[in-house]
Amino acid sequence: xxxxxxxxxxxxxxxxxxxxxxxxxxxxxxxxxxxxxxxxxxxxxxxxxxxxxxxxxxxxxxxxxxxxxxxxxxxxxxxxxxxxxxxxxxxxxxxxxxxxxxxxxxxxxxxxxxxxxxxxxxxxxxxxxxxxxxxxxxxxxxxxxxxxxxxxxxxxxxxxxxxxxxxxxxxxxxxxxxxxxxxxxxxxxxxxxxxxxxxxxxxxxxxxxxxxxxxxxxxxxxxxxxxxxxxxxxxxxxxxxxxxxxxxxxxxxxxxxxxxxxxxxxxxxxxxxxxxxxxxxxxxxxxxxxxxxxxxxxxxxxxxxxxxxxxxxxxxxxxxxxxxxxxxxxxxxxxxxxxxxxxxxxxxxxxxxxxxxxxxxxxxxxxxxxxxxxxxxx
Length: 378
Description:
By secondary structure, the chain is mainly α. The protein is built from 12 helices and 4 strands.
């Protein structure tokens, strides 16, 4: 757990550097230098990676890939789904791992591998154990899917800060002092700053306190951490909707609705709460998901677990685009798009409230599956 905390801390430090330094360089000193510095940095990082190639540990895979074994077992299981497996003494064989009491498909003995009682030579006994083990591993992978699906709405919310939050900020007063103006994209730095400040506090203060209270080495379970982060994403969307309502009211009161190029006399600090809340949400949910999908898959499928984690945000981004395009098509037909080019005539507040509602629904579904999930025994 601590490893994933500090790993994500390092990523956010890099993001923060890019937002605070590179954005300023690109806006004020030119794009050549703005792209040249990241190129040099990546070359340096690649050199460090290559220097360590001789000391990296690499474990060769088994003769047969675990994913292939699982696929073969599933095919055989479906072929024999109506049959039961009995031991030579006539007793029903028990599952190897207790977690499958949660997985009814296996518990009902409808998905088993047939091993005839007279085929009791050691090679076949080993094959039977391997098949049963692979079935348990396949069941474990299937049990991850409801959690995966319930987190998709969080990924839709995750796609909004780099886009609409930034667009909101571009319409506000962003000057600090008389000469310095914060670039709109740099507002994302509030999320990274929050994560960089929160993770050390969480890892060094909150986790030990939680460990003493619960006895869990991580303070709270992985699913509890994810759930708290998802709840905070709901709060972040609600706060963003309230701030947007205030921004639109300011534009109407000052007669600036049709002057989108004029910065509203409303400070960018109004946006800080939604950024900070979302930053804490991201620190909890993102790290929790990484740890969960890495820890709960079979050892031979760790890369698949991380792929499942990444796919949440890939599919979530696609769902966000689909949702926005659908809403835009519907609202344009009614004469007033929620996503008008003139943000003073748009209704991002409605969109944020909609996402908050979807997030509540997603959180309820998540809690339903999370409370019954049985962790893999280590």
